[in-house]
Design goal:
Arc Repressor Mutant, subunit A; DNA-binding transcription factor activity; D-Maltodextrin-Binding Protein, domain 2; nine-stranded mixed β-sheet; 2 domains; 10 helices; transcription; WH-like_DNA-bd_sf; sequence-specific DNA binding
Length: 293
């Protein structure tokens, strides 16, 4: 078997175009040439990929399976070529990056000087929103999102993951005592999220399961606000490691109920629309950020 990228491209173009004649226009070939190329591919695979009549074409079961794999292979080849081109070219132009304020402050801003030194011709625009429904509407090229993704129309790249810690300041614990079991939290001031119920599900093992729903005493829309409230001794909070690691290391915040923590890690993704004019700037930023994380 000697299948090459031209075989895959012909097959995919035929399917996407709907007819052999339409595919021949896209490929710059004759209709008979496309038909022969398709037949040669089927001969190489020793199976029929399409059932063809005078009016329409339909994928066979094997054709459906092969189409999925063919698309993945061509996509991987394009990304590999793009990576090599990026190494030869100098990225330039505007790049708008959006992230929730805690991630922006703790994981992006500290590395901006180094990134600008490496790519002086990229003009960074940084914005902070917890939720963006339409990247194009908000003129955003890359959005960094924490947790599960729901929009399948976007390209997504996993960057890292971050554990969650239940934390309090030493001053709060000295005044109110340290909870010894998850059930003890009901007697404490708890800091939670407003309009983000998943943020109020703490990764603690208890009698009813591995996720403890809490009723916050005080709420905020931003994790950074909750961090500042915890530092001020206003209660117990559950936040990601990426925004509290320095506080923990310095003793400003103390881990609580660590033995009951399930070890759940929040996924960190970059989401974006694929745009060939932006691909170079997007790729170099994501490569850089992933190394830092």
């Amino acid at each position: 078997m000697d299948i090459n990228s031209d075989d895959l491209k012909t097959f995919i173009t035929v399917i996407d175009s709907g007819t052999l004649s339409a595919a021949s226009v896209h490929l710059g070939q004759t209709t008979s040439g496309v038909s022969r190329a398709l037949s040669r591919l089927e001969d190489k695979l020793a199976t029929s990929l399409l059932t063809r009549t005078t009016r329409r074409m339909e994928l066979t079961e094997e054709g459906h399976l092969f189409l999925e794999k063919a698309r993945a292979i061509l996509s991987a080849m394009e990304e590999a070529e793009e990576t090599i081109r990026i190494r030869r070219q100098k990225p330039a132009g505007r790049l708008c990056v959006d992230a929730a304020s805690p991630f922006m402050l703790h994981c992006v801003v500290p590395h901006v000087p180094e990134f600008r030194a490496m790519y002086p011709d990229i003009r960074l625009e940084l914005s902070s929103n917890d939720q963006i429904a339409d990247l194009i509407e908000h003129r955003t090229d890359i959005a960094i999102r924490i947790g599960a993704l729901t929009d399948s129309t976007l390209h997504a790249r996993a960057l890292s993951s971050s554990p969650l810690h239940v934390l309090a300041s030493p001053e709060y614990l000295a005044q109110h005592g340290t909870p010894q079991a998850p059930e003890d939290l009901a007697r404490h001031a708890l800091l939670g999220f407003v309009q983000y119920e998943l943020g109020n599900q703490w990764p603690l093992r208890h009698a009813a399961g591995n996720s403890l729903p809490i009723t916050p005493t005080m709420t905020a829309s931003s994790g950074e606000t909750l961090r500042q409230l915890a530092l001020a001794g206003q209660g117990i909070v559950c936040l990601a490691d990426f925004m509290t690691r320095a506080d923990i290391d310095a003793g400003r915040l103390v881990k609580v109920l660590e033995a009951d923590n399930t070890g759940y890690r929040q996924q960190i993704h970059a989401v974006y629309y694929r745009n060939t004019q932006l691909a170079q700037r997007i790729s170099c930023f994501l490569e850089f950020l992933q190394q830092k994380l």
